[in-house]
User: Which sequence fits this backbone?
């Protein structure tokens, strides 16, 4: 018996605007076959925007999958051939109305490794400069500034449940010793 798992076939089931859904036929180590779901995602970038007073800019927006508003760090999908730092800077300005030439990679994460290849590179943005929001046509969100302590309370109260936001805020706290 081999320890190898290998894909025998991948069938596209549906191509959406941000994901592609496939069913993979897999050969397992014992020689049996299984069908596994796979969601292809082109990747994303996110940013922890830190104001000069230490507060963090957050966006509140409606999320269809949860049927409610969520509080998150600014983020968005990558455009074709776009570098993640470019996407993070773009999303920062589009969603918050602030720009920064001071972006530092904080961490990279995979959102749902069981069935999706989405990778999000998360940056910290400092030295923010007020510009103007440039929301997408279907984007409606509010921006607010919070202390890290306030955000931690919202996490532990279950009011922030977005994994990229929780990972980013906790990593920011640890890395910068706040």
Assistant:
């Amino acid at each position: 018996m081999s320890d190898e798992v290998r894909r025998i076939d991948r069938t596209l089931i549906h191509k959406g605007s941000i994901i592609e859904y496939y069913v993979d036929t897999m050969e397992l180590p014992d020689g049996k076959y299984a069908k596994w779901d796979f969601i292809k995602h082109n990747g994303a970038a996110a940013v922890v925007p830190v104001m000069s007073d230490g507060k963090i800019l957050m966006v509140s927006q409606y999320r269809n999958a949860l049927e409610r508003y969520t509080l998150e760090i600014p983020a968005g999908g990558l455009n074709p051939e776009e570098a993640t730092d470019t996407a993070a800077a773009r999303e920062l300005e589009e969603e918050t109305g602030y720009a920064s030439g001071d972006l530092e990679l904080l961490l990279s994460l995979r959102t749902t490794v069981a069935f999706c290849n989405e990778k999000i590179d998360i940056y910290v943005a400092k030295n923010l400069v007020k510009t103007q929001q440039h929301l997408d046509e279907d984007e409606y969100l509010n921006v607010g500034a919070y202390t890290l302590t306030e955000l931690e309370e919202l996490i532990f109260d279950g009011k922030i449940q977005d994994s990229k936001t929780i990972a980013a805020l906790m990593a920011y706290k640890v890395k910068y010793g706040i």
Q: What stands out?
A: The first strand starts at residue 6 and ends at 15. The chain is about 20% helix and 45% strand. The longest helix spans residues 163-176.
